[in-house]
Amino acid sequence: MALAPVEIRHMRPPRTVFGYRTAPTDALLEEIVTSFEDVWRERADLADRVEQLETDLVRFRELENLLRTTLVSAEQASAQMKEQARREAELILNEAHAEARAIQRRAVADNERLMTESRRLRVQLTAALSALEEPQAGDAPATGDSQETAEHEPGWYGFGGGAVPDADAA
Prior knowledge:
By secondary structure, this protein is mostly helical. About 75% of the residues lie in helices and about 0% in strands.
């Protein structure tokens, strides 16, 4: 059992005429030495433990700084990736809009070209029909069979007789 400093101060070894009695005094000193050794050992163990804890504390602080740096780097990388993804999305969207506008312009131009071609063909067909329908002064059918032959012979674009398809029907 360890003795407290206060207990040691209040201990009084038994006395004799010429001083202290040897056996009780030696026992008291032995008890004080044992107590002092226990305290000294405990103090050394605690000093080792403090040193270990300080080493752990330094290691944990370094780890904390590393984690903090890593977290900041990750946040920056995340922000950069978000910004890059946003820019790429805008670029893709702008390219898609430009391509859609180009397709629309080509479609409108093709439509105009086809409408112009359709009008031109209609004018040509109308002119050809009117030329066929106007009998000329010296042209008279010789027999009735020529009328039937004209209806069964292929005409323009492989259609029989005077049947010319309507250009707008397509």
